[in-house]
Amino acid sequence: MQHTPPALGDANAEMLEKNLRALARSSPRVAEAVARTRSADAGVVLDVAPDGGLTGVRGSGPGAVRLGSARAPIDEGERLAATVDPATTGCAVVLGFGLGHHVRALQQRLGRAGVVLVYEPDAALLRAVLERQD
Q: What global pTM score does this model have?
């Protein structure tokens, strides 16, 4: 029997477990909170954008909030990270993990010379994203 890996945008238990193990190294209480919640509680619809990045919307109707660019969320995260100068920035504080593209881009930009601290109060949203991308 051949195993077909889940597509980006589909929940993936193996991806979640890998991400929770990594998260537990520096934030064990956050990893436990994410493990205890359900991604369905986040109220988000996640999909894959044309650029291959995860995108999504929280809620529906006039009160819906887009979590990132519908067409190019990876580029959006990279453009945000480009505003941070690694020569003068040792720590970037991010208010909201969202889809994570900006966090990844900041971490890559700062490398080992800097730290990225993320405040994300919504464990269900964090779980929904961590189930879908590394």
A: 0.89
